[in-house]
C-alpha cells in the first residue's frame, strides 16, 4: 500500500506541481508588456510625433505671419560738403532709426506641391501606426514564446522533483535490502550516486527556470526579483488552414503593409518634385512703422507708417538639368518600391509555407510524444513494483527511470515547438491572439 500511495504521489506531482507563488497567466503577461515594454512605448511616441507633424502649416499650405523690430543707433564725427561748396561738420553726431511692423507671406501656388506634402504627412502617420502595431505584434510574440519556454522548463523541473523522490525511495529500498542481506553494498552506492546526479540535474534546471523568469520580468519591465508560477497547460490551435493564412498575410502582414506605404510615399515624392516645374506665386503684405533722427543732414527727423502689399512669382527656367535628374530618380524609387512589394510578398509566402509545414510536423510530434510519455509512465510504475519486490536490478530500474524523464522532456519540447510554430504563423499574418 505504501508503494501504491507513493506512486500516486509521484504522478500527482507531475501533473499538478505545487504552487507557492502567484500564478502569472499568459494573458496577464501580455497585458503587462503592452503597458510597460520599452519598444512599444517608443513606437507610441514615434506615432505621436507623426501625428503632430501632420498639419497644414507643416505642409506649407497656411500663411506665415511675423512681427519685426529693428533699432540702430550711431555716434559719429561727420563732415558734409554740399553742392554749393559749403562744408558742415559735427563731432559726436547722433543718428538713430527705428523700424517695426507685422508682415504676412502666403504661398498660394507652388505647382500643387503643398498638397503632395500634406498627403505624404498623412502616409507617414499611417506608417507610424503600422510600425507601432508591428512592435506590439513582435512583443506579444516574444512574451508568448518566453512564457511557454518557461512552461516547458517548469514542467521538466517538476518531473525532476518527482524523479528525485523516486531515487530517494530507491535508496531506501536498496538500504533495506542491504540490511537484510539481499543486496550488496555496491548497489546502495550506485543508487546514492544516481540520487546525487538527479539532485545536480535539478539544481541546474532550477537555475534555468529562474533565469528565464528573470528574462520575462525584464521584458515586462518590472522588478527582476518577482517570482511567479506559470500555467503549465499548453493549448495549441490545431485548426489553422494554409489558404486562409495566405489571404490574411497579404492583408495584414505589417512588413508588407509598410512596403506598400513606402511605394505610396515614393509616388508623392515624385509629385512634389514635378511641382517645381510650375511657377511659385506668393502674396506679401505688412504694416510697418519707421522713425529716424539725424544730428547732421538735410532731414533731422522723419516718420512713416502704412500698409505694404504685393505679389511675387518665380519660375525655374534652367537649373543645370537637376529637375529632370530628380524626376528620373523619383521614378526609379517608385519602381524599386514596387519590386520590394513583390519581393516581400514572396518572402512572406515562403516563410509562411515553411512555418506551416513545421507547424503540421510539430503537432504530429506532440501527439506522438504524448503517447510515448504515457507508455513510459506505465513502464515506470510496473518497474517500480518489480524493483520493490526484488525481481529486477537497480540498473534496470534506473533505465526505466531515465526513459521516463526523457519521455517527459521530449513531450514538453514537442508541445513547446508546436506552440511556437502556431505563434510564428500568427505573427506572419499579423494576428497573434493570447
From TrEMBL:
Segments crossing the lipid bilayer: none
Protein location: Cell outer membrane
Protein origin, superkingdom: Bacteria
Main subcellular location: membrane
The keyword Ion transport is assigned to this record: no
Coiled-coil features, chain-numbered ranges: none
Keyword tags: Cell outer membrane, Membrane, Transmembrane, Transmembrane beta strand, Transport
Pfam families: OEP
PANTHER family: OUTER MEMBRANE PROTEIN TOLC
Annotated family: Belongs to the outer membrane factor (OMF) (TC 1.B.17) family.
Listed name of the protein: TolC family protein
Organism: Sphingobacterium suaedae
Amino acid at each position: 500500500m505504501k508503494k501504491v500511495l507513493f506512486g500516486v504521489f509521484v504522478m500527482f506531482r507531475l501533473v499538478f506541481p505545487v504552487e507557492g507563488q502567484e500564478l502569472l497567466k499568459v494573458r496577464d503577461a501580455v497585458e503587462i508588456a503592452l503597458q510597460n515594454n520599452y519598444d512599444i512605448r517608443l513606437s507610441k511616441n514615434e506615432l505621436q510625433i507623426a501625428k503632430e507633424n501632420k498639419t497644414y502649416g507643416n505642409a506649407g499650405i497656411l500663411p506665415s505671419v511675423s512681427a519685426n523690430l529693428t533699432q540702430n543707433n550711431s555716434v559719429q564725427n561727420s563732415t558734409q560738403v554740399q553742392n554749393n561748396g559749403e562744408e558742415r561738420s559735427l563731432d559726436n553726431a547722433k543718428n538713430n532709426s527705428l523700424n517695426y511692423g507685422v508682415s504676412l507671406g502666403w504661398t498660394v501656388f507652388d505647382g500643387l506641391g503643398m498638397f503632395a506634402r500634406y498627403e505624404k504627412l498623412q502616409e507617414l502617420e499611417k506608417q507610424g501606426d503600422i510600425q507601432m502595431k508591428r512592435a506590439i505584434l513582435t512583443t506579444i510574440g516574444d512574451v508568448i514564446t518566453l512564457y511557454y519556454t518557461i512552461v516547458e522548463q517548469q514542467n521538466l523541473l517538476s518531473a525532476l522533483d518527482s524523479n528525485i523522490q523516486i531515487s530517494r525511495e530507491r535508496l531506501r529500498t536498496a538500504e533495506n535490502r542491504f540490511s537484510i542481506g539481499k543486496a550488496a553494498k555496491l548497489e546502495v552506492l550506485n543508487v546514492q550516486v544516481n540520487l546525487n546526479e538527479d539532485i545536480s540535474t535539478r539544481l541546474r534546471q532550477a537555475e534555468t527556470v529562474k533565469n528565464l523568469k528573470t528574462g520575462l520580468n525584464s521584458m515586462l519591465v518590472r522588478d527582476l526579483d518577482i517570482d511567479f508560477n506559470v500555467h503549465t497547460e499548453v493549448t495549441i490551435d490545431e485548426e489553422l488552414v494554409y489558404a486562409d493564412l495566405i489571404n490574411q498575410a497579404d492583408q495584414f502582414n505589417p512588413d508588407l503593409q509598410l512596403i506598400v506605404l513606402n511605394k505610396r510615399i515614393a509616388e508623392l515624392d515624385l509629385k512634389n518634385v514635378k511641382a517645381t516645374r510650375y511657377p511659385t506665386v506668393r502674396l506679401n503684405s505688412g504694416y510697418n512703422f519707421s522713425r529716424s533722427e539725424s544730428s547732421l543732414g538735410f532731414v533731422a527727423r522723419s516718420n512713416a507708417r502704412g500698409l505694404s502689399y504685393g505679389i511675387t512669382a518665380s519660375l525655374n527656367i534652367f537649373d543645370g538639368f537637376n529637375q529632370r535628374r530628380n524626376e528620373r530618380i523619383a521614378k526609379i524609387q517608385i519602381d524599386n518600391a514596387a519590386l520590394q512589394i513583390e519581393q516581400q510578398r514572396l518572402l512572406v509566402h515562403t516563410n509562411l509555407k515553411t512555418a506551416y509545414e513545421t507547424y503540421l510536423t510539430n503537432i504530429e510530434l506532440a501527439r506522438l510524444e504524448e503517447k510515448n510519455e504515457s507508455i513510459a509512465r506505465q513502464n515506470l510504475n510496473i518497474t517500480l513494483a518489480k524493483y520493490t519486490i526484488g525481481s529486477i536490478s537497480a540498473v534496470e530500474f534506473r533505465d526505466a527511470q531515465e526513459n521516463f524523464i526523457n519521455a517527459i522532456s521530449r513531450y514538453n519540447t514537442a508541445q513547446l515547438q508546436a506552440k511556437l510554430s502556431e505563434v510564428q504563423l500568427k505573427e506572419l499574418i499579423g494576428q497573434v491572439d493570447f
